[in-house]
Amino acid sequence: MRHVQLSIPVALFVENVLTSGEPRELIIDCLQRKDFSSLLSKIKEPTMDLVERLDTAAEVGDNWEEAIRSRVYEFKFLHINALKRLLYFRFDLKADQDYIQEDLTLKDIHLTLQETELLQLLVGRQWIVQEEQGKDQRDKDRDTSLSIPVYIRLKY
């Protein structure tokens, strides 16, 4: 199954508005009407220029509505700083606090198996998300709600 592909500004816009916790259709309605009043106090980055991000989406043809509905999409391109922002928006993880960066690799990220699989879907065009070897290995029947240490590295 193919997922919607989004540019970095539009994908981070989607992640930011999803942090509001509001129902997806309500978010879409607010954005279509450009009435952000019910979202701004609830999103992680209220200073983000939402009008500019909507304009960017229109200019480049990114389907932000489908991405919000499905909560799954692919980044067209993703540099390491945008990857770190994605980790913050989607999983509430912060650099140097919740994981370590070594060059173009992020290490010691603790995610559930389901979160790991989702992250791989989002960033898999350029990044590999793998369980850290030798760290609390479990069998395939493991509890998917348990946190496991993973790392993310550039494919190329």
Summarize the structure.
This protein is α+β, with helices and mostly antiparallel strands. The chain contains 7 helices and 6 strands, in the order E-H-H-H-H-H-E-H-E-E-H-E-E.
Describe the structure.
With 156 residues, the chain is an alpha+beta fold. The protein has two domains: 71 residues, no CATH class; 60 residues, no CATH class. The protein is 42% helix and 18% strand. The protein has seven helices and six strands. The protein has a four-stranded antiparallel beta sheet with strand order 3-4-6-5, with helices on one face. Strands 1-2 form a two-stranded parallel ribbon. A hairpin with a 2-residue loop joins strand 3 and strand 4.
Characteristic key phrases:
156 residues, alpha+beta, 2 domains, four-stranded antiparallel sheet, two-stranded parallel ribbon, 7 helices, 42% helix, 18% strand
